[in-house]
Amino acid sequence: MTIPSDPLAAIAAGRDPGPFALVRREGADHVDLYAGPARRAERLADLPLPDGPAGPRTLALVPFRQITERGFACVDDGLPLEFLEVRQHRRIPLAEVLDTLPDAPVRTRDAGFDLSDDEYAAVVERVLTDEIGRGEGANFVIHRTMRASVQGDPLAAALAALRRLLVGERGAYWTFLVHTGARTLVGASPERHVSVADGLVEMNPISGTFRHRGAAADRAALLRFLHEEKEVEELYMVLDEELKMMAVVAEHGGQVVGPYLKEMAHLTHTEYLLAGRCSRDVREVLRETMFAPTVTGSPMENACRVIARHERAGRRYYAGVLALLGRDAHGRQTLDAPILIRTAEFTGDGALRVPVGATLVRHSTAAGEVAETHAKAAGVLAALGLGPDAPRPDAAAAVRHADDPEVRAALAARNLPLARFWLRQREPGAIALRGLAGRRALVVDGEDTFTGMLAHQLGALGLTVTRRDWSRPGPLDAYDLVVVGPGPGDPRDPAAPKMAAMRAVLTELLASGRPTLAVCLGHQLLAGLLGLPLHRRDAPYQGLPRDVDVFGVTRRVGFYASFTARADTDRVTGAYGPVEVSRDPADGAVHALRGAGFAGVQFHPESVLSRDGTAVLADLLGHLLDRPALSAHGVADRG
Predict the structure, then answer these.
(1) pLDDT for 627 beyond 50
(2) Cα distance between residue 585 and residue 538, in whole Å
(3) Domains, the chain, ordered by start
(4) What is the reported pTM?
(5) CA 610 to chain CA mean position, Å
(6) What is the distance between the alpha carbons of residues 506 and 526, in angstroms, rounded to a whole number?
(7) Positive or negative, the Cα torsion across 314, 319, 88, 325?
(8) Bridge partners for 253 per DSSP
(9) How many CB atoms lie within 10 A of CB 13?
(10) pLDDT in tens, 331-347
(11) Residue 456: in which H helix or E strand, if any?
């Protein structure tokens, strides 16, 4: 297809300008226009990023099915990985773009969700009971799609919707339209997924949704929202999950900044910013961060299985990303990738799709999550004429609540119970413990990349750490310590291959006397081998911080578990000698255990929820590796 020299002129004349994109970044007074031929790639690694002068090279539309590159499950709908080969880039004043775009209503018919409210509510109930309740994960995002047929030219309708979003929405990270010829995507995404610039990789987890009832958020109601347990814990959980990703792509893991408010026309969200140094190819960064937990769930790999089980249809581009790849003035790679949410897809046959999802956690109710899908879709549906516009605030109402001292204090208070390890900038060697230099640790991953965060913590304490998936057996005798890590699933299932493999590793370690630390799922399996009974909790401990006794010291730690071992006494004796147990006095739930050469914790010391996690690890290393345990204050104060 021929690309005109001025796509904006073609739009003004009502002609198809060929493949192009219009992007307004948050707060910008201009719109970026990108144009060039549309092509397809099989893998993210195949996206072109040639050398040359500074500027954008490729704008990719990454569908959800691309998650198969990581070996994760999905309902494969065959949607292509399309990209624009950017040959033209211009910055155009916003006012000029608004003058050019059609100011006309979008006309549709036969609009309705593919799942009714009652059908979606039933799916929510099944996920809460069958997945979160059975230990398959801490949170999951299930989507539904508003469908309609466009009357008239789909591209003209998309351009008109873009104009309404540029005028009526606010606070979006990208407000955009991308036209490849085969399809047009238009939306106002609030969330940066990942970006790379100047060697810095950043991620931006957003969670928690406050719905406006009028022209602006009600201050008193917003303050109540900021203290709601469900909303606070929902943001903590996605923060933990994106820290797992940062543990892979950033050299020393991610540093947490925030939280902040994301104020939009219909909604207000809460968000964090994560940052770390990165030297990877940006296409590899994209691959390793597919896709945001805010639109999938955690742990990621099992979340994809849960999505496939309960949605039973492909997600198309929902929960994927737009990805703008380029180079800076020094020739270094750059990346900017918003999540494809709050986005409408138009295809040439007149089909219109607006997908939207809700995050399901242990506190969720079916009615609440149904309402959340309607609220999240409101901005795009208003732009399509399928819902009411948000009331326009007057000058008095147009207040940034993010500047309110009481709001800022409520946000800052969210960090008080969190781990300083992830909130402070970390210098290599700053908290290394004497006696660990040169010692090697192996972390066995049970399908939960919390193990990446564990590896960073253990490395910061002075160990040299290797990670290995449970499905890749190998020798254990080259390591001073083996950590059998967390993962989803029922530890009581004798037929599950993962459980059998991890039990075999633990059995070998116990028989050899090699120092062993077991975390969460690993702890449950270790407890079972020590003769302690395992039980499913009446209410899941998913994303739950608690103050518990750990061998005589009160520690603030974070739990992600639906199962627990139980003990009736503080000391038990089994085939591997005496075992000291730290347990809940109310129900006997075992929070931690230790014996000669082994220890286990039901909680996640590496979690951002574990304020005292680094101190717990330091003490356990002292027990396992024959060095004096650190005092209760040594690491907690420094880490």
Answers:
(1) no
(2) 17
(3) 7-392 (3.60.120.10), 420-626 (3.40.50.880)
(4) 0.87
(5) 18
(6) 7
(7) negative
(8) 251
(9) 11
(10) 999 999 999 999 999 99
(11) helix 450-460
> Is the link from the previous residue into 259 a cis peptide, with omega within 30 of 0?
yes
As a whole number of Å, the end-to-end CA separation of the chain is 57
pLDDT-derived band at 639, boundaries 50, 70, 90: very low
Please state, in angstroms and rounded to a whole number, the distance separating the CA atoms of residues 28 and 45: 31
- The C-alpha atoms of residue 575 and residue 138 are separated, in whole angstroms, by 34
The two three-digit tokens of residue 461, written as one number: 């304490």
Q: Would you state the structure tokens that stand for residue 39, as one six-digit string?
A: 């092509």
β-strand pairing of 481-484 with 440-445: parallel
* 605: preceding bond cis by omega (within 30 degrees): no
Tokens at residue 453, please? 């965060």
Rounded to 10 degrees, the C-alpha dihedral 232/233/234/236 comes to 90
Stretch (H or E) spanning 411: helix 405-413
Which residue is it, tokens 């106002």?
188
pLDDT digits (tens, 9 = 90+) for 130-146: 888 777 877 899 999 99
Element (H, E) at 94: helix 94-100
Distances (CA, A) of 243 to 274, 431, 483, 500, 517: 8, 20, 19, 29, 22
Let me know: does 559 contact 546? Beta carbons within 8 Å.
yes
What is the rounded distance in angstroms from the CA atom of residue 624 to the CA atom of residue 515? Answer: 6
Residue with tokens 């010291």: 553
Just list the catalytic residues: 520, 604, 606
Q: Name residue 247's amino acid.
A: A
β strands within 190-289, DSSP E: 192-197, 200-203, 206-211, 255-263, 267-277
142 within 8 A of 130, measured Cβ to Cβ: no
- H/E stretch holding 441 reads strand 440-445
Taking CA atoms, 537 is separated from 125, 132, 173, 593, in Å, by 18, 11, 40, 19
Count of CB atoms within 10 A of residue 398's CB?
11
